Amino acid sequence: MQGDLVVVFGGSGFVGTQVVRALAKRGKRVRVPMRRPHLGHELRVTGDVGQVQLVQANVRFPDSVAAALEGADAVVNCVGLLSEKGPQTFSAVQAEGAEAIAKAAAARGVERFVHVSAIADPKTGARYARTKAAAEDAVRAAVPSATILRPSLVFGSEDGFFNRFANMAKFAPALPLIGGKTKFQPVYVGDVAEAVANALDRDDARGQTYELGGPRVYTMRELMTFITDTIDRPRPLAPIPFFAATPLGMLLDATFRLYPFANAPLTGDQVALLKRDNVVSPGAKTLADLGVTQLESVESLVPNYLWKFRPYGQFQTRQNA
User: Fold this and answer.
1) What per-residue confidence (pLDDT) applies to 266?
2) Burial of 314 (0-12, 13-18, 19+ CB in 10 A)
């Protein structure tokens, strides 16, 4: 509803930024709790003057979460991690953080709640997947009317997948391939943001769970080949079996935890996730059920931001077509 105050946790992140933008376009007032609000100045210009408010809060501290929800009409939780660093662990941020937000929302009587989770099978044993599942359970227990959204691999100009491997291809003579047959259903970040905004306004979305995937399913090998073709850097793909990738990921994770300003290129948790397909389940409610039907594709958008990784820039004719 126009004029509502929506509090968006994780609003400064890759998905959250687009959610804030989508809500502002609909006339919502948006509050973004951040650990360091002085670094979020770019968010202020996503809406009219004064429409987007930044406040200090940390999901690891429930009192700050409760304060951030003062006067809220609705809540969106986009908080998530791809890797752990110091006190920012999957358990503390994704599971306990989601529980703190949901309990604070329930205490204030907020029933319109959207929780952005992920398609991640906890049976893989990955901490990421287990804490995502725990977060969903905690949100449901505190706010039964909450809408849960589970996107597949999310892509966009600042994504951590296509950009990451394209950058790797600039320097590596070959690209590692783990789980080459594992399937993904990449979904555009703007479509996810639209789904969040729609879910807040639709009564039929309350208490429902949706799985969000794009228009096409790819294998990991197909995605890697698409990246190298798009940036015009042919690279052989070097398959790494899971029995070798797992200890390698664990070693890299342990090593990079010692460096506060860099994330590990691979973790044991990520290897575990690659053992299961990441696609919309048969019979699941989808983007279409939330009114999002015109989906952007990988082919139409990703080349528009991967050009910077090409050898000779944006307008140079491809040498390896």
Assistant:
1) 87
2) exposed
The two beta strands, 74-77 and 112-116, are parallel
E-assigned strand segments in 93-235: 112-116, 147-151, 154-155, 175-177, 183-184, 187-188, 209-212, 218-219
CA distance 80 to 91: 10
pLDDT in tens, 196-210: 999 999 999 999 999
Q: Which domains does the chain have, with CATH numbers?
A: 5-158+185-216+279-295 (3.40.50.720)
Relative orientation angle of helices 127-142 and 96-107, to the nearest 10 degrees: 10
The model's pLDDT over 8-42, given as tens digits with 9 standing for 90+, comes to 999 999 999 999 999 999 999 999 999 998 888 88
End-to-end Cα separation, the chain, in angstroms:
50
- Rounded Cα distance, 280 and 185, in Å: 7
Q: What is the pLDDT of residues 222-276, one digit of tens each?
A: 999 999 999 999 999 999 999 999 999 999 888 888 776 778 888 999 999 999 9
Q: How far apart are CA 209 and CA 199, in angstroms?
A: 10
Q: State the pLDDT at residue 47.
A: 84
Q: 300: Cβ–Cβ under 8 A, 6 or more apart, which residues?
A: none
Angstrom distance (rounded) from CA 195 to CA 108: 25
Residue 153 CA, distance from chain mean position? 8
Mean pLDDT of 111-128: 94
- Say if CB 50 and CB 44 are below 8 A apart: no
In the chain, how long is the greatest CA-to-CA distance?
Answer: 61
Q: What is the pLDDT of residue 41?
A: 84
Other C-beta atoms closer than 10 Å to the C-beta of 320 total: 10
Please give the backbone phi and psi of residue 215, each rounded to the nearest 5 degrees, phi first: -75, -10
In angstroms, the CA 235 to CA 238 distance is 9
